[in-house]
Every structure is written in C-alpha cells, then in structure tokens.
Amino acid sequence: xxxxxxxxxxxxxxxxxxxxxxxxxxxxxxxxxxxxxxxxxxxxxxxxxxxxxxxxxxxxxxxxxxxxxxxxxxxxxxxxxxxxxxxxxxxxxxxxxxxxxxxxxxxxxxxxxxxxxxxxxxxxxxxxxxxxxxxxxxxxxxxxxxxxxxxxxxxxxxxxxxxxxxxxxxxxxxxxxxxxxxxxxxxxxxxxxxxxxxxxxxxxxxxxxxxxxxxxxxxxxxxxxxxxxxxxxxxxxxxxxxxxxxxxxxxxxxxxxxxxxxxxxxxxxxxxxxxxxxxxxxxxxxxxxxxxxxxxxxxxxxxxxxxxxxxxxxxxxxxxxxxxxxxxxxxxxxxxxxxxxxxxxxxxxxxxxxxxxxxxxxxxxxxxxxxx
Amino acid sequence: xxxxxxxxxxxxxxxxxxxxxxxxxxxxxxxxxxxxxxxxxxxxxxxxxxxxxxxxxxxxxxxxxxxxxxxxxxxxxxxxxxxxxxxxxxxxxxxxxxxxxxxxxxxxxxxxxxxxxxxxxxxxxxxxxxxxxxxxxxxxxxxxxxxxxxxxxxxxxxxxxxxxxxxxxxxxxxxxxxxxxxxxxxxxxxxxxxxxxxxxxxxxxxxxxxxxxxxxxxxxxxxxxxxxxxxxxxxxxxxxxxxxxxxxxxxxxxxxxxxxxxxxxxxxxxxxxxxxxxxxxxxxxxxxxxxxxxxxxxxxxxxxxxxxxxxxxxxxxxxxxxxxxxxxxxxxxxxxxxxxxxxxxxxxxxxxxxxxxxxxxxxxxxxxxxxx
Lengths: 372, 372
Description:
The structure is a homodimer. Chain A has helices spanning 7-18, 77-86, 137-147, 201-210, 263-272, 325-333; strands at 2-6, 32-38, 41-47, 51-58, 66-69, 71-76, 91-98, 101-106, 109-114, 131-136, 162-168, 171-177, 181-188, 196-200, 216-221, 225-230, 233-238, 257-262, 283-288, 293-299, 303-309, 313-315, 319-324, 339-344, 351-355, 358-365. By secondary structure, chain A is of the alpha+beta class. Chain A has three domains: 2-120, DNA Polymerase III, subunit A, domain 2 (DNA Polymerase III, Chain A, domain 2, Roll); 131-248, DNA Polymerase III, subunit A, domain 2 (DNA Polymerase III, Chain A, domain 2), CATH 3.10.150; 251-365, Proliferating Cell Nuclear Antigen (Box), CATH 3.70.10.10. In chain A, strands 14-11-12-13-26-25-24-18-22 form a nine-stranded antiparallel beta sheet. An eight-stranded antiparallel beta sheet of chain A has the order 6-2-3-4-17-16-15-10. In chain A, β16 and β17 (233-238) form a beta hairpin. The longest helix of chain A has 12 residues, at 7-18. Chain A is elongated, with a radius of gyration of 25 Å. Chain A starts with a strand and ends in a 7-residue tail after the last strand. The mean pLDDT of chain A is 95. Chain A binds chain B through residues 76, 78-79, 82-83, 86-88, 101, 108-114, 268-269, 271-272, 274-275, 301-308, 310, and chain B through 76, 78-79, 82-83, 86-88, 101, 108-114, 268-269, 271-272, 274-275, 301-308, 310. β21 (303-309) of chain A pairs antiparallel with β9 of chain B, so a sheet runs across the interface.
C-alpha cells in the first residue's frame, strides 16, 4: 500500500470513521481503522459491535489522492489521527514499509506506526438492504435532536435506550421515552414503507454529526440493521431487540389548563433554580391561576427560590403541579420556535408541550409528587 | 444585614474570594464566604488552611453599594455565587430575614439561602507584617508564569511544591525545582530587603489570576505568612516549612555545545511526537552535528517519529542527548521571546535554556538516560 493525499481530506475521513473505533473492545484490533487501497479508491472502515462506519474516497482533484500501490493495513485509530493532525504538510504520504509497519510522512517529519495486518480485521458486512428511502438531511437531524435526548441511558430496559421508528403508510412515527417523559415526532416520507425498528440513541447522534444541511440522506432498513448513507459516509447501526411499547394511549387528549409561554423566558426561570439540587435532582413547582403564575423550588439543605412568571396567556382555574426541572428544560429546548403551549390535565397527570407553529412534534412529561 | 449593590460588582468580588473557600475542609463552615457589613464598607472573607482572601468594597457611584443595616453572615460559596450569577437584575438585594436565613433578590425573582451565623466562622488574622515592598503587577505575574509550573505536585518533598523567594541586597532570586528541572528568575526590587521564604505554587497561581496589568502589587512578608495586596484584594498565603536547597551549584557554567533555535519551531517539532507516550511519559532524542540537527522519539508499542530541525545556529561537534518532551516544551513556553539559546555540557549533563533577549530568566532540564 502506497499513496499520497491532501492532509485535510485524509483528516476529515479519519475523524469520521474513527468515531466507530472502540478502545474498550474485547477484540483489540477494533481500536484500529482498516485502510483498503484499490484501483481508484481508498476505503476506511471502523466498527465496534454497535456501529460501523465506512468512508470511501475516490481520487479527485479536490483530495489529490494519488495511488502508487494497492494494499491494506489496520492502524490504531488515535495514533493515525494524531500523526496526520500533527504533520505540518499539505500532502501526507502513507506507505507500508514492512509487513504492517507503516510510514506516515510530510515535509521534513515522519512517523513509523506499528499497524496490524488487515486479514486479522473481522469482516464487516455492508450489503445494502432492499428497503430504502430518502429524507432531507435537515429533517433527519431535527428528528434526532427532538427525540433522542429523551432516551434512557440505563441498560435496565434496553428498548428505552433507542428511538423507535415505525411506519404508518407514508408517515414515519419517531418515538422516544425513558418512562418518565416522551417525545413524538411525525414525518411524511412521501412514499409508503413498512418497518418498525428501534435504533440506539448513541448511534443516531453519530449520524446527526455527519449530516451537512442541504443534502438528502438515504436510509436502508432490514430486520437486523439500518444503514444511513450521508454523502460518502456509510453509517451502519445494529437494531435494539424487543418490542417498543405502544405509547399513544399515554398521551392525554383532553385538557383543563393551558399555558402559552415564551420558551426562552421559561427556560431562564427554571434554570435560576437549578442549583437547588438534592442528589443531582431538582423539582420545580408551578402554581397557576388567572391572577398570577408562580414558579418555586425548594431544597431542605440549601434554601428556596421563587419567581413570578410572565406568560403570554393562561386558560383555566387554579393549578398546582411539580415536575423535574431538567426534564422540563430539555423538553422546552427541543422546540424550534419560541411560543410553546403547555397543556395540563390536572395536578398528578402527564402534561404535553406543543410548538404552536409546528404540530409535527410533541413532548410529554410526567409530574413529580411533592409533600407540600 | 441589609444592602443592595450592582450585580456585576458583587459577582466580581464573590468570584475572587470564592477561590479560597474549600469544599473539602474538615471545618464545613470554610466552604462559605463571610459577609461583614459595616458603616461604609462590605468585607468578604474566605479561607482554607492554605490561603485566605479578603475583598473590601467601599460604597461608590461605580458599585452602587447601598447599606441599610449593618450585620454579618456566612453563605455557602457556590450557592451565593450561583444566586447572584443567575438573577436577571442590575441591582441585587441581600437581607438577613431570620437568624442566618438570607434573601437574595432582584427583579421578580428571589432566593432564600440557609446561611450560618458569622460568629461560627474562625477568626482569620489579616494583620499586615512590617516588612513590605512593591513590584509592578506585570513583573510579579511574569515571575509566577516563568517559575511556578516547574514546582512538584507531589507532597513527598513539600518544599518542592513552592517557589523560593530569597533576597540578596536589592535582588530577589525566585527559584523553583522538582529535582528534574529548575527555573530561576532574578528581579531587582530597587530596595534592600531580607527574607527567604517558599510560597505554595497553587497560591501563587491565585495571585497571578488577580493581577491586572499596569498596577503595583504590595507584598508583605513575615516568617509565618506572605500577603499580596492586589488592588482591593488581599491574598494571604501560608509559607512552606523547611529549608530550600541551594541550587546555584547545580547550574553549569561551562558548555561545549550551543543550539540557537526558534522557540515556536522547536515546540511544534517536539509536540509532533507527543502521542508516542508510554505511561504518560515521552522521551525525545536530539542528535546534533554541524551537518544536521535531528529530533526523534520512539515507543516500543506504538512506533516512532523522526524530524529534521532547522536551527538558527549550532556550535559544537556531535551531540546526542535525550530529554522529557513535556519538560522541554514547558521550559520553552516559559520564555517571552522566540529566539532561545540552549547550552549543553555533554550527553548526561544538565542543560540550560536562556532567552537571548532577557537574561533575568534561566531554565535548566536534566537529561534522560536511554539505551540506544
């Protein structure tokens, strides 16, 4: 293997695939990036058991890829990344010197990195499933931003660590929940599809990072895996086993109280009480009536906070409800517009947050019981 | 106690004294800040066993300090800081409501913070020692920047965790060492003083943070403590017990090799090999001759790096010497100018670094033995 390439082009794809390499894998070679140089293209692959990323670079005037000799090798992800980043040269030269010992050079500096032979690297199957569709990158990014943060980080119930994507004719229902809150986003695919899959939130974040606004992303789905084709990057994720519960019955449809409020104003007010934490957790109490809307928080140890809110509109009688400050802030932050409608059923009932200018997204939060 | 004050003024002094409060002290009240409101001034004090900071604010048009009722209280450092930071108001009102329960309010929001009574706070003696002198803030900051980084962070030999300040007539010798390297800075005080003290590096960093260029800092010294008067801030540090060794005999005076090199060029070159670490440590080998100057580094596990340097000038025959990459980089970074002269005695001898435009500062580094 021997080639030269523009430093910026190589660094970009190495950073991209490097995200899938794993330092903690029981298989040490998976902490590396597999280089495969053929004919007219350089392919880079990294993978752990959870996510695999493949980058293909075709020789172009832009990347100045110049192939002298085909071949392949596996290089430790962090070392090859650091080597390329630190070389002070526009063009980087890579060459296998002996077995898997690889020279990376540029200008008057060079590295010799101990690699591994590529036949030791497990074979990753990137075959494209038949069922596939396209969505605008911007839409996919929005789906991820508005739902994935809700997912549970605990492995107690693995199904809750991912976002569920379920088709209903042309519509894609994207739902995430950790059993204390829920996010639901509906997207029109413009084409009829039929699948019901749950994708790990952590892998969706990697997809979101790869998306540049403007272009479409192709998504291919099988019953084992999902593939995201983002420009020249292919991100392949495992699916989470298990059946995602039907959450639609949890979303109330009749409400007795409605609070229309500025998102930014409400976030600042909740944030003001955020240091009144007990064991990392803080509860905020909302007391609303036609006269005044008050927000308060209390910690036995530290003290208390109190604040009068300035809503756009409030409909309903006296309401007292307590909730997690963090959950409310995160739900509010997920909306694109500033005017948010919060609809309550009653003191101990789940409430929903809606963007008054975008009905594709809904957030639901369960209240917290307090003793005052 | 009841007063109001400009938010920015209060936040500034709270951040300043807060640095001395200790969350880990065996005496819980030391995690607080003592407020003392008298006549025409608000005094804030925080302290751990190591460092004490006192801020005094006199009522002025600038800070809008408005005193309604004298009094004192101790408030938990992080809570009072967060309260003041998060209140969305130009003016902050502080008032003891009941015992030590304190209201902090601004605009339409308020906090109630559980404080402690001030008579529970230990009495910190801020009496000014007789011996004192002034130095420009800029000079003091430079002394700290150029020496304190060398200090040891291990408590094995406490005397090496501080910078030694020793007078010699008008001259102040500032020396730091961790027994593998050494920094020496000499400052002309313009006045004859007589002391020999060692001040913890961590406290000197706090002093450096308080210094705004342009003003003088007054330093008062006793055999127990040292005080730094930086504008309205008084920082008082304990001294380190023990006798600082005489290091002058360690500094060689005759050299066989001289390398004049650009600091930035040399730093980048050393940094290029910085990921070839074994157990957090990396050794760089310099091979110099009249023909070529080469830098190389090697890690059994990872691989190696090699680079040809472009010095300004080299005097001497063939020299091979190895050193810690980190120590060399830190020594180089301490200099103000770019042209650095490195003077070597021989392969296994300590070498010194000198700023060719500033003879007040010298860095010394011990070489590392290697087996190739």
